[in-house]
């Protein structure tokens, strides 16, 4: 077992990039080999605060000048494919923030590039590593409350994308809710229920008061294997400045209810008069779950451990998002296996 630090070249110093910097700084045995940001002012500010870390404004120069074990890509998704080409050409594994790209064909190409280069590619679906997500998956798989029959997943938020600590590109992108937020939720539905989505009927739209240039509302009916159906509704343009979240799963012998975005899980059997809260491990959202994702990625690169959030698996979630968009555009349900076959995406990872 290697005792040397695992060296990561971090590309991107925006809001999420600064969070990732803190995550890496807390992890023993993981070090930053260098950072890249195309904004000279941002790069200079980081260099002033971290004089021991090499700072670059071009990825090509950073790849040539640093000794790294992997790259962490925290940049807007429309540049991921070009950046990944350089990273794989340098022979380095890649952990990229989601979505992998904003174009499904580009995402397929990117995953193929990693496969051809025989290099690990992981995508930052960090919410899978929240203790509440893990517990829901365990409860469903354990069968103590019977067979899941249907679910309701609701995320209601008035997200002011102009705030200084939020990324600005979602304000002008197409399908910001679907590809920046709902992608997490649809991925959790796949992950926690541990069964494939068979079809999706979806509607996306934008209320007239929305700050976003394109659809900030998503409503989906998902059909999963085994007869499980899930109603999903999410918005970034709610009429109230209070986040409201609930994910309820009805099973043959009870319910599982997550009542807060990152915590507050409870269960009840059919005849119970009240929900029973479940104890969960302490977790600082966006940090502890990202750290767990990072450790999983490093474990795969170093020791061949399971790569849970692989690029190939992410393609299935991304395909679900684009199948939902197609459903909204056509007004018809989309059969996911047919959609994936049409776009050259394997459903088995």
Give an overview of the whole structure.
- The chain has 349 residues and is α/β, with parallel strands linked by helices.
- It folds into two domains: 6-119, NAD(P)-binding Rossmann-like Domain (Rossmann fold); 127-283 and 317-340, Dihydrodipicolinate Reductase, domain 2 (2-Layer Sandwich).
- It is built from ten helices and 15 strands.
- The chain has helices at 15-26, 40-49, 59-65, 80-89, 104-117, 131-142, 176-193, 288-303, 311-330, 336-342, and strands at 6-11, 30-36, 55-56, 70-73, 94-96, 121-123, 148-156, 197-205, 217-224, 229-235, 244-251, 254-258, 265-269, 276-277, 334-335.
- A nine-stranded mixed sheet has the order 14-13-12-11-7-10-9-8-15.
- The protein is globular and about 65 Å long.
Strand adjacency order, main sheet: 14-13-12-11-7-10-9-8-15
Q: What is the class of the largest domain in the CATH system?
A: Alpha Beta
Low-confidence runs: none
Q: From the coordinates shown, what is the CATH architecture of the largest domain?
A: 2-Layer Sandwich
- Chain-averaged pLDDT: 96
Considering DSSP H and I runs of 4 or more, what fraction of the residues is helical?
25-40%
Give the amount of beta strand, in percent.
Answer: 15-25%
